[in-house]
Amino acid sequence: MSFDEHEEGSTKKESKSGGQASIWQYIALATIPLVLVLGNSMLVPILPVMQDKLNISRFQSSLVITLFSLTAGIIIPVSGYLSDRFTRKAVIIPSLIVYGAAGVLAGLGAVWSSYPILIAARAIQGLGAAGTAPIAMALVGDIYKGPKASKALGLIEASNGIGKVVSPILGSLLALMTWFAPFFAFPVFCLLALLAVIFMIKEPAKEKEAEPLKQYLQQIKTILKSKGHWLVPAFFAGSITLFILFGVLFYLSQILEEKPYNIEGVRKGLILAIPLLCLVITSYTTGAKIKQNGTLMRWLMNIGLILMIVSLTLATFLNGNLYVFIGLLSISGVGTGLLLPCLNTLITGSVEREQRGMITSLYNSLRFIGVAFGPPLFGWLMSISHKTLFISVASLSLLMLVLVFFFIKPKAELKQQT
Predict the structure, then answer these.
(1) How many domains does the chain have?
(2) Model-level pTM?
């Protein structure tokens, strides 16, 4: 089915800030997803040390990552509603403050060797995370229109990827000083992002008064009823893509430390960065090129998923040579980089500003849940066999291709809602 005629609604004039896009505003927007990823992925390299220092199990150490993502995934829709009712910055700014302050508390929990304090602080960080990157996506839709919107959304996705690239390396480097150093480094990055949001981002003024909650929820229900035939598949495509991405990275991180590779520390971080770098470059390029071309978006989404299917299927049988295996995962990263910016642009531009926060939040909530379940489920599949794991994720990619091909059919030229 094709997009609804409502998608062709007239677009109002670009806001002054959108028409005169500042490089500093782009940078400020990019810091939000970047600091979000740093606060989570930077801890991955120190998990084995944490197990030893705090005398906890592998499962307990994995909760430091999983509980953060699950808490954020549950709270994101609430943050989306608040950003629609008030303003985006009114949610992002306090969220960054909570996020950074809880990072300090988590660091103190590590210093005191208190796992309960550490894990509670990570849950609080998840509450703060819910109001950062997901709301930034809605803010981009408010500030920019047309080609500038897709370019900015591509930058957001690329920034997310850059965070994934540098996080393992940065976490490993900081841990050379002391194992809990990453906990205290993160609030510094959070403070820089906070200052950038306050002073570099000019949010357009709200044009309408906030609606009563009952009427607001009714409008969300109407949107999902009229556009759910493609929005819901798009939500799940984003979630499954992140599930596969983080799961594959977890798998790669595990096998690199085992025989015959025995690769650890910064060297391992650099190898993990290769497929992520392919994702970053592809995401930014895709965002810059797609503009509002719906036909091109459809081609790129389907090509991206085909690349994922082929590379993950071949990885089932060609894992003996590390160079070939990394090459296949890099091709999968390219496929992910083709898919996500298109989904971001379609979802963000599909609704009016008054409901954009909730719709993008529902999308990001499912993405966070995909991230949360990736590592533990991949760990379980690893215990069965390598082939079972990659046949499963290749099948999931095939399912996504079916959903995207048959249900997500954007019009040739899209017009973003104001």
Answers:
(1) 1
(2) 0.78
